[in-house]
Amino acid sequence: MPDLANETLEREIAALRTEVRRLSAWTDIANLQAAYGYYVDKALYDEAADLFARDATLEIAGRGLFRGQDRIRTYLNALPPMEYGGVFNHMQLQPVITVSEDGLTAKARWRAFIQIGWLGREARWAEGTYENRYVFEDDRWKIDRLHFFTTYYVEYDKGWNEGGVELAKPLDGVEPDETVTVAYGAFPHVYVPPFHYANPVSGREWTEERSRQLSTLTGK
Predict the structure, then answer these.
(1) Judging by beta carbons within 10 Å of its beta carbon (0-12, 13-18, 19+), is residue 50 exposed, middle or buried?
(2) Beta partners for residue 161, in sequence order
(3) What superkingdom does the record give (predicted)?
(4) What is the pTM of this model?
(5) Domains of the chain with CATH codes
(6) CB atoms within 10 A of CB 31
(7) Which of 10, 93, 148, 190 is deepest in the core (most CB within 10 A)?
(8) Number of helices (H) and strands (E), helices first, in the chain?
């Protein structure tokens, strides 16, 4: 006869191992995203690119989509260098991380608060939302999709009451692999990026249709 007590114990151990793996993934992913922010802060673009999976994608504001780690590295290295008089802070905040049941993929929503400027030239505030995807590749967590939606981008000395800076367009000399996957506008327009997770209390799913309904950008 089967030993029911042992079978029950084995199932409980397996369940605990799965839960520990998922909890460990949460911490690893949080550290991964925080590391990305610190590297970008100091224009350490190769270090930031190393955090992406081989077939990852990156899409920031209206700059288009870059596909694959090599193309992501090219895009990042086209951004301004860190030099005397520069500020380029990208704080990674307010994570909601959802790890898959098998512990091999995950999604996360983050808020970035940004300070950017150059001495004697300009100073700006920015804020926005990431909806990212992660994958366990080569025995470690990597960014599989990074998609940043700018909420606002404004001049420091004027603030958002004076209006916003236009949504960033493709960089000169660095063509994206694809055009933007979501057309939207930054402040004063309103766009709510779809939530990857259901409401944790009501269970209600968010849809792209709801995001479009809340958008104030004409025709989007």
Answers:
(1) middle
(2) none
(3) Bacteria
(4) 0.90
(5) 4-214 (3.10.450.50)
(6) 11
(7) 148
(8) 4, 6
